User: Fold this.
Amino acid sequence: MSTITDTDNRQQVQRQSREALGEDLAAYIDTCLTQPNPAGQLIAVLHKVQDKFGYLAPETMDAVAQLLQVPSAKVTGVASFYHFFRLQPRGKYMIRVCLGTACYVKGAESLADRFTSELGVKFGETTGDGLFSLEGSRCLGTCGLAPVMMVDEEVHGNVTPDDVPVILQKYLKQAREK
Ligand code: FES
Assistant:
């Protein structure tokens, strides 16, 4: 009679994790494991996962934890700490608030706070109606217009917190008309 050993279980989990991420990402993590500090590659790995799937789902984060051999809590902690990681599927409109230095000194933080309160989501999340995803961004390259934010490819400059509901209304209206 055959018995299921820890090794069998571990191999099965590894196999499922490789399937969840796909062989390209699994091979990338294999390469990371040959580096002196594989866990130090976690952010780079998560970027690649987000590029491929559009966001970081719980099951893909678990797969990263298994293959990179880091605790799941560390993976989810890093994913939720950084503004540039998305934890839910992308909404119809992607809002990016620039958190670069020039925008920061011109009030990007209060702008960001207004977006989170108006939309009722945190950075990295999507509204329940699937319309808006909210992200922080590095410098968008238009510092002269700080503070700057984008909705998809449209740049909005010199934005004040009170402009936020007006901007959102514009896209809500657009979504209703389509
Ligand atoms: S810092 Fe915001 S556009 Fe450059």
